[in-house]
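Folding Problem: From Residues to Backbone Shape
Fields: amino acid sequence; protein backbone structure tokens
RECORD BEGINS BELOW THIS LINE
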Amino acid sequence: MTTLWKWFMASLRASWFLWTMIIVNGLGSIYGFIWYAYQLESTSPAFLRLFVPDSPTASTLFTLVLIALLAGRSIPSLEAFAAVLNFKYGVWAVAVIIAGAALGDELNWQHYMLMFSHGGMALESLLYARFYTLKMGHIFWVAAWTLLNDLLDYTLDIHPWLADELEPYDQIVGFATFGLSLFSLWLIYTLVQYHRRFAR
């Protein structure tokens, strides 16, 4: 197991592995924007649409981080936004699906597919933390964006659509999302500092 884990971690920056991740994340991002098409069309004024497709935006940013790694480049501001948002919305999607199911929403294959893909989003953000070069200043700007996004999502009701069973609790979901944002910011920064000091 230790040998397999070492091989896997060493593969994270291998070109074949990065290409695989780029393709998977890229296709997932395209699917995500298609998934949000109707909600985007029904959101007005138009400038608010920037805040609607949370998960595909996050996975698109992470795809760009992977492309930069493949090119041997490091873009700390992009890393900060991609890592925090990809982790946050990965966890968020899994959590709201499980919460909806606990309240009686009947799960189908799409729910399981979304839990698997979003769980992967969160996991990859953590796995690649050893390669991030972001600093506290970059985290500050991500915090400003993601907390503004949370505010708009749950005051203007432009958050990703929830299961019918979960809709009566959307304000509770909003507070939980705010807490998840803070945790995501802390976790990504803490992991980067750990790898910078001890793991390299």
